[in-house]
Amino acid sequence: MRPHGARRAARRGRADGAGGGPAGIGRPAPDTPPPDGAGPSTAPAPPGGAPGGPNLLPMGPVRPECRGLARAAVRLDAPAVERTLERAVAELGVVTSWEEVMVPALRAVGRKWAAEGEKYVEVEHLLSWHVSTALRSVARSPGAAAGPALPVLLAGMPGEQHSLPLDAAAAGLSSRELPYRMFGPAVPADALLAAVGRTGPSAVLLWAQSRATADRRLVLQAATTGWGVRGARSRPAVVLAGPGWAGLPRTAGTLRPRSLGQALDLLAGLASPETWGGPGRQPAAAAPAASARARSVMLRAMPPNTTPWNGATAHQ
């Protein structure tokens, strides 16, 4: 976790209007009771007052699970945080839990941190760790159950330390029984390209939280790295995720989903054997045209989504 991540996240959230989006963070609203399972708590109150009051995070009209999660995090009530996250994932699923419970709570903590200096660092650390734990607990490799689907490679760009969005993607792929290979944050360029050649992925999802880590040259190298036997080599699609790619010219052969849900829909289509002409793969010469047709069909079939998957608050 990077100690300045939440402050940058809060600034980006204000700039891109995150407070006015579906999460509704940043507009004061009356309290709502926490969800069942989030309390009561026996954790000690944070310094400066009892739970709530001046320590209450400014949140708009969010789900009760999100409000309960934020309250438990402010109290440093780890058992309540754990229970709330486990129940949210079990009852709401990975995508809804991520977009409507975890991310809004992380945003609220980040904004509180940015507004009050170094206060609430411990809250952000505790919440981030438990979010990662909850996501990883359901991110099981499907193994043989995935059938002939090709794996998706998940990686953070070199120097990119944020990893919670990658955990969310892994959990979402697992929930769809799609194979993946998780390489985590800050993967060196040479290691990333070697992993592409060795794993033969259908797609490579690359996360960049900031412009400083959004290396378009490496993206092009990944998109043109072939794998497979001679005469039947293939190349992966490259899926770019994170706010670091915003505003950069598009690189040929890459896709930019606008949300976790849309990314999972896209990756599911790309991993399908039909996209690659069956388990025998597509020859490299035919792969670009076939992949372009498949991407075009899948993108037209996706419902419109106005919430960018930009990680404005997420995460370490």
Task: Give short descriptive properties of this protein.
globular, 316 residues, alpha/beta, 10 helices
Molecular structure report:
There is one protein chain. The protein has 10 helices and 5 strands; from the N terminus they run αααααβαβαβαββαα. The chain has a 5-stranded parallel beta sheet, with helices on both faces. The radius of gyration is 20 Å and the shape is globular. Helices cover 43% and strands 6% of the residues. It has helices spanning 5-15, 64-74, 78-92, 94-115, 121-138, 164-175, 189-199, 216-223, 260-271, 287-301; strands at residues 152-156, 180-182, 203-207, 237-241, 254-255. With 316 residues, it is an alpha/beta fold. α9 crosses α10 (287-301). β1 (152-156), α6 and β2 (180-182) form a beta-alpha-beta unit. Residues 1-53, 278-293 and 297-308 have low confidence and may be disordered.
